[in-house]
Design a protein that fits this description.
Elements (H helix, E strand, L loop, with lengths): L1 H37 L2 H23 L7 H11 L2 H8 L7 H6 L1 E16 L4 E14 L5 E14 L2 E9 L7
Antiparallel strand pairs: 1-2, 2-3, 3-4
């Protein structure tokens, strides 16, 4: 009988020891996995991609919005949202074109409905954003007008964040 108790005690001790070893191995594996995750380049790329998408959405709103009461502020927003040739084109725009929104008395506001990056290169600071934007036009004394447009914007990462380098409308629908 004493032999049987000794065997049972030995078995319980062995089982407890095995459980401790398994727990220690799991703890080491979990710690190494955690360290690997926080230093993972894939995680950094995903965060950079999310930031490019977030800022790209903001730039689309800025470039599709203009208040006829403050066209100069709208132009400043456009300039701060752009870079490269598009920025130069806006900076050198004919001043008479800036009076068009004022004369029309129309305020245009863009709202991004959907957006995604179709290309992303974090190493070179480039991305292509595709966005569906609802543009609301409001003119005093008239019903608001709504238009849904799709845009493609080439984004470039600058010292000031992601900015639009090129901006174009994407055709909707199939061949006619």
């Amino acid at each position: 009988m004493a032999r049987r108790r000794l065997s049972r005690a030995t078995s319980l001790t062995a089982l407890a020891g095995t459980a401790v070893v398994v727990a220690a191995v799991f703890a080491v594996w979990a710690a190494l996995s955690w360290v690997g995750a926080i230093t993972d380049d894939g995680l950094n790329t995903a965060e950079a991609r999310d930031e490019a998408l977030r800022q790209g959405r903001e730039r689309m709103v800025e470039l599709t919005t203009m208040d006829h009461d403050d066209v100069e502020a709208g132009l400043r927003r456009w300039l701060s949202a752009t870079t490269g040739a598009l920025h130069a084109e806006l900076a050198n725009a004919d001043p008479t074109t800036l009076t068009t929104p004022e004369q029309a008395g129309t305020t245009v506001t863009g709202r991004v409905l959907h957006a995604a990056l179709s290309e992303f290169d974090a190493d070179h600071g480039r991305a292509v954003l595709l966005a569906a934007v609802e543009v609301t036009s409001v003119r005093a004394g008239a019903e608001p007008g709504y238009a849904r447009n799709r845009y493609r914007a080439r984004l470039r990462h600058t010292d000031e964040g992601w900015k639009v380098e090129t901006f174009e409308t994407v055709a909707v629908g199939g061949p006619e």
